[in-house]
Amino acid sequence: MIRNRAVLWACVAFAVTTLAIPPDVAYAAAAAAQHAGSISLVLPKVELVRGTQTTPVQPPAPVYWGDVVNTGHMARARIKLDDGSVLNVGSDSSLTVVKHDASQQQTQIDVTFGEVRSKVVHLAKPGASFQARTPTGVAGVVGTDFYMAYTNSITHLVVFEGKVKFCNLANQCVMVGAGQMSSIRDRDALPDPPIIAPNQDVLDAGNNTKISGTGSGDVVGFASAHPIWFTVIAAVAIATPIAIVKNRGGSSSNPNGTKPTPGHSRGLPPGN
User: How many structural domains comprise the chain?
Assistant: First the structure.
């Protein structure tokens, strides 16, 4: 009886202690062993989904296994993984860091929609893998620089450096080398045979995922990513005070819009 009572009290104490720990603290403690990296740059606003919570990102922000990074229109994010790999997430995109074990070099990211450029460190350990998945395809790499996008149910791949094993969900694959591209056009479709990527496709892949600057709301980063918008904003900012000065000058010296009489503008009587 005494032994049973002691066990019962131990269970009660454990339950009370567990309930006393705030949910966010408990989650952080559980996720501490599953740290994947950090979000080092955002432009201009990015959201992080962790469990049931969605919060705006203020870099640097830690990323754990299972975290979802969402970018809105004209927004971008850079994720630095613990092994040194870098993910540049483009606008209107959603990316999940499913797994990243830096010690074993095991990584999986899911691109639900949108685009991402991945600069992956060389994988040297036995059984190492880096996979980027979409609803229709999988890109497996050893160490490379590649762009992947999923839009309108089509997975696009452009390889900047190295080689990528590009497969559909039935594990039917092609090898895509540096300077080449391929697509998977449906869930059950075969990957297109690799072709030389047109220069415009390579430029678009780079520009659509380019991000630079020092952090959230960075003006230099915004100008670099959206030069046309920045030019328009700068032109408006410069033109507005000029227009105000001109209007003020015209209204003070000639409020009625008539041609001034010589001498009046200097406060002198006519004819002087």
Answer: 1
